[in-house]
Write a structure and sequence with these properties.
about 280 residues; transmembrane; transmembrane helix; EamA_dom; membrane; EmrE-like
């Protein structure tokens, strides 16, 4: 379980780095772009994927290109969510995105709906509603950003999960698919930053590049340790799945509440607890 724990820490560390970006005058868009340089290089060095499968006629390029566009743009949405809604709600919304991939499994991939999964989906949707709900004062203070960005994170990561499933069903090895996605995401992310530079909205800085290196290490570490967790416990995929998702929600809640003093209503806290329960029910089912 040490790999799962390291994956959880890396996942929450991504949110922490995004939370600290404004405090240290880091351009999040640039950091995200450099993150994909690091993630792509580490994928090539550590996983050493064979890229010959990318030249095959059956290669799922439509899904890969969609992922290359979605990964950096939803990363930006996650950064905005962490800034406006906090780590607690953003991490929980990201993990609850599994509800969309679960629904897609029933609608698109022929999976069977069980009582446990239906209960988990219902609890998860209730959890999401509780987490994005803001009382009158909080809603007026932050406007729609405090609920809009967590919803974008929820929908965006759900779509990414569905596209990952499409790529996997096409028989694409994980290493090759990650290499292609990171390379495409790198191009999209830097195209966005170059456009901002031309518009005079930003300038490239060494500080943002260094933050991107740290972000890339945490992002790749999350993926690598999660994969090794599954490899170390091949007979217990549900345990790895549940431990990872529940661990991120729980650690994210502790970090957000204790380290950053994020203010949540009792309804928001209830949503976090419901999210933990929903993930556990889905894993059990």
């Amino acid at each position: 379980m040490i790999y799962v724990l390291l994956s959880v820490v890396c996942s929450v560390l991504v949110s922490v780095l995004l939370k600290l970006a404004r405090r240290f005058d880091i351009d999040v868009g640039q950091a995200i772009a450099w993150n994909y340089v690091v993630a792509s290089a580490l994928t090539a060095a550590v996983l050493q994927p064979s890229l010959t499968v990318l030249r095959e006629p059956a290669a799922p390029w439509l899904a890969l290109v969609a992922l290359g566009i979605l990964l950096p743009t939803i990363f930006l949405a996650l950064a905005a969510s962490v800034r406006h809604a906090g780590i607690v709600r953003s991490d929980a919304a990201q993990r609850l995105s599994l509800l969309l991939s679960l629904l897609a499994a029933f609608a698109l991939f022929g999976d069977q709906l069980t009582g446990f999964k239906a209960l988990g989906i219902t609890l998860g949707l209730l959890a999401l509603l509780c987490m994005i709900w803001r009382s009158g004062h909080g809603a007026a203070e932050r406007g729609g950003a405090s609920w809009l960005y967590p919803l974008l994170v929820f929908g965006g990561f759900g779509m990414i999960d569905i596209l990952f499933k499409r790529v996997a069903l096409a028989g694409m090895p994980l290493g090759a698919s990650l290499q292609a996605m990171f390379a495409l995401a790198l191009l999209v992310a830097f195209a966005l930053q170059l456009w901002r530079r031309v518009q005079g909205q930003t300038r490239f800085t060494a500080r943002s590049a260094l933050a991107g290196v740290l972000l890339g290490l945490a992002n790749f570490g999350n993926i690598l340790f999660y994969l090794r967790g599954h490899r170390a416990l091949p007979q217990h995929p549900a345990l790895v799945f549940a431990s990872m998702n529940i661990g991120v929600v729980a650690l994210g809640a502790l970090v957000g509440l204790l380290l950053f003093r994020e203010r949540l209503s009792w309804l928001n806290l209830g949503g976090v607890l419901l999210a933990l329960l929903a993930i556990g029910v889905i894993a059990w089912g």
